[in-house]
User: Which sequence fits this backbone?
């Protein structure tokens, strides 16, 4: 039995991690750029979000084919349960956030861009829906800071406190 995730799973994990950083930074630092740069910053954010959605769906499909390698030594049942709950929340968050963002952008009723292309939009804006989606997108994005921090903290706890292979299972292979 494998003791690490597959190279594809590891690659998707770390690529999603980088895309999440870029997506969050685009929104957090957009105020440092001139207003004329906002469409570019928004396009970067949206393009990262769409990429995250696609990669998270691909990651789910790959996970069905290649289950998680066992944690050694085996943690207590409560730790395993908390890990599963944490991963479920991360998966749901990074699938729901882009979907909510896409619904919001589509219903603004004007041009918006992803990957340098004009994306389709509703013939008429639905600002009530846009406001609701924006509220949930921002609320869940803020929750994301907490979940990402908790995810990283748990990985470090596994590695340094419980001294199991949880963190090592997701680390890229060293080149020889």
Assistant:
């Amino acid at each position: 039995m494998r003791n690490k995730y597959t190279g594809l799973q590891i690659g998707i994990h770390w690529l999603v991690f980088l895309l999440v950083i870029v997506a969050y930074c685009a929104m957090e630092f957009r105020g440092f750029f001139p207003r004329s740069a906002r469409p570019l910053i928004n396009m970067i954010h949206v393009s990262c979000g769409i990429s995250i959605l696609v990669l998270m769906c691909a990651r789910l499909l790959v996970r069905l084919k290649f289950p998680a390698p066992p944690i050694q030594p085996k943690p207590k049942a409560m730790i395993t349960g908390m890990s599963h709950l944490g991963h479920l929340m991360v998966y749901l968050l990074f699938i729901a956030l882009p979907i909510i963002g896409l619904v919001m952008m589509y219903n603004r009723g004007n041009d918006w861009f992803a990957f340098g292309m004009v994306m389709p939009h509703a013939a008429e804006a639905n600002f009530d829906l846009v406001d609701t989606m924006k509220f949930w997108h921002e609320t869940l994005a803020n929750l994301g800071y907490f979940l990402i921090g908790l995810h990283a903290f748990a990985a470090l706890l596994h590695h340094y406190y419980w001294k199991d292979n949880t963190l090592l299972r997701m680390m890229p292979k060293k080149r020889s």
Summary: Residues 127-161 form the longest helix (35 residues). The two ends are 23 Å apart (CA to CA).
